[in-house]
Amino acid sequence: MKTNINRKNDQAIIKEVFDILKDKLETDKIIRFWTICNLNPQDYCDLKDQLFQDETVDSLYEKIKNYEKENKS
Length: 73
Fold this sequence. Notes:
By secondary structure, the chain is mainly α. Helix content is about 80%, strand content about 0%.
């Protein structure tokens, strides 16, 4: 029973951290951070849904084009 309670608290902390990250970082940096930390895949899916909930294919395409333009070597 104690483990279940801790898991719920862990999930609440993860959600709070993601909310902070969403306010402070760009999406690509959040994804890179997630990868570096090697976090739980289910948590990643939840985060991905939150990060892209307001995006469309067109808006993502524009962001990719802008990113590529700004980061050309």
